[in-house]
Amino acid sequence: MACSKYTLTNTGSTIVNFNYRRCDDSMWDYQVELTPGQTKNIWLINGTFAISPVYSSIISLVNQGPFPPISETATPTPTSTTTPTATPTPSVTATNTPTSSQTSTPTPTNTQTPTNTATPTNTPTNTPSGTPTNTPTGTAAVTTTPTTTPTSTPTNTPTPSPTDPQPARYAFSVPHSEISSSEACYSSTNATLFGNDSVFENNTFFYGCSSGLCPGVNLAGWYVYAGEVYELDSAGTVGTIAPCGLTPTPTNTATVTPTVTPTPTQTIGYYTYSLGTGATSNDACVDFSSAPNTIYGSVAGGPGPNVNETLYFNSGLTVPVINGYYSNGTRWYQVTGGSGLITLSNLC
Fold this sequence. Notes:
Elements: E1 3-10, E2 16-21, E3 28-34, E4 39-45, E5 50-51, E6 59-66, H1 88-102, H2 113-116, H3 122-126, H4 135-144, E7 170-177, H5 181-185, E8 190-195, E9 221-225, E10 228-232, E11 238-243, E12 270-278, H6 281-290, E13 293-298, E14 311-312, E15 324-327, E16 331-336, E17 341-347
Antiparallel strand pairs: 1-4, 1-6, 2-3, 2-5, 7-8, 7-9, 9-10, 10-11, 12-13, 12-15, 13-14, 15-16, 16-17
């Protein structure tokens, strides 16, 4: 799981909010504030930084490089292993010289001894030591000497084996969102995926790193390529594929009816809205008719959405929506400030 250090500076005059996934514990930080003129360093997992397109022009984002920094390692140590292989040859000749003096008595066995020694100096040593009294014992000594010769040959085996080459992986930088497919279509945050095929559409599985098994990388989310939204699970397997503007999960269409109920019951703690989203008011109005998203509002605000009401992504009303435009098909609503608060509204 690759990490980088980023330096962010707010060059505008408004508070900016952004999201990212921390490198130290892999936890998400949502709606992190950056006040006007403030500079902040963050350490994040690559591809997890997200910010609303509304504020991308007033944020200075500098990538300080991988973290922790990559250190160089010395690799000349394997070359030293090849030098000892030449040393075993003189040791073989030294061990054969004492054995030749014991095997001198049987004349038939002298034909085997020259095969063990590469030098002709062994032949004159055999002749003066021969005595007829040693003939019974000399035969037993001959059988033991061949056992010492194989022990010197295995020293040539420790040769380094080359590593197998890794298959090539192709990198694709694509818009990405972990919230929904529609958010991915309008996202200005890119993530890098790696596939075994150079054609993006031919890959049924993607990696989060350029080589190896990429331990700890979670690729769950939506990725956009050539106008198509690809849904990946945490392991990188491709699931649903749908064009931008269409939602791959039709369950959101059932939540359209609660938007017209004028009097909510007191047994629930939130309103449910079906709203389109987009980087502009027009995009949000168009998105409502093709891929609406389920958004929640508090009961205290009354039926809405309304200006000065806070919108949330969950029914527990704990995760506010991100900055941008939302629409119910009739009106559009602008959310600013990073806390999900509607600050402006008008007709589509």
